Amino acid sequence: MSTRTAIKGYAKVLKYVAALLIGLTLSNLSGEIHAQSKGSANDSAKPVSAEVMESVYQQVKTPYKYGLVMVPASNDKKLDCPSIFRKAGKWYMVYIVFDGRGYETWLAVSKDLLHWESKGKLMAFSDSTDWDANQKAGYVALETIKWGGKYKWQPYQGKYWMSYFGGNSTGYEKGLLSISMAWTKKDPTVVHPWQRIGHPVLMSTDKDVRWWENHTQYKSTVIWDKARRTGHPFVMYYNANGDSLSKTRGAERIGMAVSDDMTHWQRYRRNPVLDHHQGITGDPVIQKIGHLYVMFYFGAFWKNKGGAFNRFACSYDLIHWTDWTGADLIQPSEAYDNMFAHKSFVLKYKGVVYHFYCAVNKAGQRGIAVATSKK
């Protein structure tokens, strides 16, 4: 064998070895990236640290109570559950009114978040035998959730959406209450009757009903998760009563449902995401602060805590939630909220946090109040 031939042979061997080593290196890198990706997914399910929870509390707390901003026209009407959005330089509030018969859904407008004017009804009682004839309690769905963001009501398929709970029994949250959807193709800032899909999407009598929601269902909030962390774009959080033979003794908890089209919903997981085992854990509303999701909710009649009050929980993935264990965000303290101070809608605008809530006094008068982070 000539020297030239030997050199060519060695060169081929070196190329083969180099290719083999490069292949092994790329394979190892791929494995490491995959492992890191899996690790990130696991990290998203981890509890939120006490330090981060404290930081959130400091960002969202509103120690200054401004007072009532929406007052009922008469004592036989009770205002509740504000959800607020912004369009064309004005703020709008979707809220519900109980008048003895049941809930109807209304709209109000404001220029400054402090002075509000009622505009009229979006969903009214039906003079019919509809399943929701006497109860239509609606909430804005698919609003942008960025903390300090635009608070825009996003349309889907050319429609604006509300989730609502409905029922045909009269009285304060009486009878079987179920969750459904309403929509409009018109401007949501203009008062007009909304369309309803005509049937519940979740009921406590469904075959796949979970143990914690087998009595009745209440408020829901729907967000548009374009990252599809659950595998679906639309995520609903809702509170429901269940788990006891007595409908007056079962606890209320917050659970999840998901959808691909806003009209067909399926329950997500067996257990609730927030559960205090006694009393009420309810009325969830979601905001996103950086990469962290914050669920504002209210508690009432807990084992070691009486009354009604507003609190929060945090999550990295929308599924696993860490509950705040510190001070309440809102609790009774004033003449207008000395019975209950509960049911949040919290937003940040121009550096000021506004915490809207339902205020109930000991006379049973119920209106909508706000507290702020600055005087």
3D architecture notes:
With about 375 residues, the protein is mainly beta. It folds into two domains: about 1-45; about 50-370, Glycosyl hydrolase domain, family 43 (Tachylectin-2, Chain A, 5 Propeller). Helices cover about 15% and strands about 40% of the residues. It contains two helices and 20 strands. It has helices at about 5-45, 50-60, and strands spanning about 65-70, 80-85, 90-100, 105-110, 115-125, 135-140, 160-165, 180-185, 195, 215-225, 235-240, 250-260, 265-270, 280-290, 290-300, 305-315, 320-325, 340-350, 350-360, 365-370. The protein has a four-stranded antiparallel beta sheet, with no helix packed on it. The longest helix has about 40 residues, at about 5-45. The protein is globular and about 55 Å long. The model is unreliable at about 1-10 and about 10-40 (pLDDT under 50).
Strand count: 20
What CATH calls the topology of the largest domain is Tachylectin-2, Chain A
* Percentage beta strand: 35-45%
Report helical residue fraction. 10-25%
Report the structural category. mainly beta
Give the strand line-up of the largest sheet.
1-20-19-18
Quick one: biggest sheet? Answer: 4 strands, antiparallel
What is the succession of H and E elements?
Answer: HHEEEEEEEEEEEEEEEEEEEE
| Secondary structure tally, helices | 2
Q: Which descriptor suits the 3D outline?
A: globular
The CATH class label of the largest domain is Mainly Beta
Assigned CATH architecture of the largest domain: 5 Propeller
User: What distance lies between the first and last C-alpha atoms, to the nearest angstrom?
Assistant: 94 Å
What average pLDDT do the residues reach? Answer: 91
- Number of domain modules: 2
User: Rg from C-alpha positions?
Assistant: 25 Å
